[in-house]
Design brief:
Layout: H1 3-7, H2 10-34, H3 40-43, H4 55-63, H5 67-71, H6 75-78, H7 84-88, H8 95-108, H9 115-127, E1 136-137, E2 143-144, H10 160-174
Antiparallel strand pairs: 1-2
Helix pairs in contact: 2-4, 2-8
Bound molecules: iron/sulfur cluster (SF4) (2 copies).
Length: about 180
Amino acid sequence: MSIRDLTSMAEAQGLQRKEINERLKKLQNDVSDYCFQCAKCTSGCEAHKLLELEPHKIVALLKKGLIDELVNADIIWTCMSCLKCFERCPQNVAPVEILYALKNLAVANGKQIPGQYTAILQSVLSLGLIQDIQTMTTKENITIKRDDLGLPPLSKPVDSATFQTAIMKLALEKI
Ligand code: SF4
Ligand code: SF4
C-alpha cells in the first residue's frame, strides 16, 4: 500500500473532507474569538524566514475564511511542526493546528504532496522508520556507524503487509 492508495480512496476522502472542513470551521471560530493579531507566534516561528506567509497572517486569513487560498499555499508544507507558535500564543491559539488541518485537506483534495513527505511515508511503511539508518560524520571527520557505538541492529516490521495496513488505518483515523 502506498500514499497513492491513501489519496485514491474516494469514499474515505469524502468523509475526510467533511471532518477536516468541520475542524477548520471550529478553528476559524476559535481564532475569530481569541486571536488579537499580536504576532507573538510569528516572532518565535523557526521557519519564519522560509515561510511564504507568517503564522499570524495565516490565522488572519483563516479568520476571513480564505481556506482555498491557504490550501494552495506552499507554507503548509514548509512549517516544521515545532509547536512554538502554540507555546508562545497568549490566547492559546495554535497556528500549527490550522496548518495540520490544511495539510490534511490538501491530501484529501488530491493535491500533490512534496516529495519529502512521500519519501517519509514510504520509509515508515517499508522500514517502520522515517528514514533509513544513517552513518554520522563528526566534527573531527570521523564516520560513525550504529555498530561502532555498540548499538544492536534495528529490526524491520516482521509482517510488513499487516504493519502497512495498520499504519494506513491509523493515518485514516487520525487525519
Ligand atoms: S500569538 Fe496567538 S493571538 Fe497572537 S497573532 Fe498569533 S495566534 Fe493570534
Ligand atoms: S509549528 Fe510551524 S508555524 Fe508554528 S512556529 Fe513552528 S514552524 Fe512556525
